[in-house]
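Data card: per-record layout.
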Amino acid sequence: MRLLTNISLVCLSAWLVGCGSQAQQVENRQTAAQSHQEGVASFSGKDYPAAQQQLTAAIEAGDLPVDLYVDAHVKRAVANAVLGDYDQAHADLDKMEQGALDLDVVFAARSFVLEKEGKQAASKAAWSEARRINNQVRRFEE
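The structure for this 142-residue chain is written out next.
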């Protein structure tokens, strides 16, 4: 009987720990989604310092759905370019080029970053690649 009680306590403890980590995941997803939403609003309002911070918070919170994860990196890259942090902008885009489904948007953002750096030929090449993938892709503008 004592063995059965001990086993029951172990199972209950394992179940509670599992629920705790699941609850933490839900909280992380909500935090990430909220930070992403705030970052997108700041980005749309051209408040690039706030967008950069909020999108970074969304990325670092983890548990973003893939489409929002890519969107956060792309918009953060554009915000970083506006703020003059080209290395971080390229790092975000390099990461997204490795497997993002919407490479047209990644290349459009790359074109924007390169243009901000004054690299016109490379910017045009990136824009051409974005248009080759999707001729409806939109340019990023400051």
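Known properties of this structure: The helical segments are 2-44, 48-61, 66-82, 86-97, 103-116, 120-133. Confidence is low (pLDDT under 50) at residues 1-19.

See the next section for split statistics.
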